[in-house]
Amino acid sequence: MPITSELRADGIRVVTMDHPPVNALTVQGWFDVAAALDEAGRDQATHVVVLRAEGRGFNAGVDIKEMQHSSGFGALIGANKGCYAAFKAVYECAVPVVAAVNGFCLGGGVGLVGNADCVIASDDAYFGVPEVNQGALGAATHMARLVPQHMMRTLYFTARTIPAKDLVQFGSVLEVVPRAELDDAAMALAAEIAAKDTRVVRAAKEALNGIDPIDVNKSYRFEQGFTFELNLAGVSDELRDDFAGTEKAATR
């Protein structure tokens, strides 16, 4: 299965994304992430979640091929609803979520990480929101939680990426470690949280969300409205077709 969830004896629940080749999730994959995080929050035995990935990178966003091979707007609506559900589930998970980021973290990956409570990354990790290249908008809400405002705008308009090591200075990434040490570093932080009284930590998570200055769910939903407009105008299909053709040529 692309999404697995395992509860360890110490109260750490490990949710893993494994959808080769690049962890670009299908519509169902996004809903599966949401379901795993919702289940984790409901389970009183879960004290903390580590969200991680297998493979070349953490997450490459939405599966563009699924969208382009579908007729009508069903896949688009499904992807938007799935991403919204997954991001919301991470943010509203009743326990802290530690994101362990390896390799690329793009588009929807930024949505997941930007909604997490703590972020640890490997030294090969980088972040970006390339949506403008594919005629979509979204995840600016979450990139703004990782970098300052003007940096976010530059990254968004240019579709540039930023290495994880540059996020440490902003405090959004706690630490950057060699890739081979990423899981151990994430588990060490998670274990520190898991050792606390889960009743207090769950209350703290709810309290911190309650004082958040930005309603991330409403903000992201607002962004999605522009994605629908671009799709209705035909802009998104044109750019996604170009992207799919370029990707296909690159793999020949």
TrEMBL record:
Among the record's GO biological process terms, what is one?
A: fatty acid beta-oxidation
Q: Which InterPro entries match?
A: ClpP/crotonase-like_dom_sf, Enoyl-CoA_hydra/iso
Annotated signal sequence is none
In its keyword annotation, does this UniProt entry include Lyase? yes
Q: Which domain of life is it from?
A: Bacteria
Keyword set includes Lyase: yes
**Which molecular-function annotation in GO is an example for this chain?**
lyase activity
Q: Which UniProt keywords apply?
A: Lipid metabolism, Lyase
Tell me which family the UniProt entry assigns to this protein: Belongs to the enoyl-CoA hydratase/isomerase family.
Which NCBIfam families does this entry report, sorted A to Z?
PRK07938.1
Q: What is this protein called?
A: Enoyl-CoA hydratase family protein
Q: Which organism is it from?
A: Nocardioides marmotae
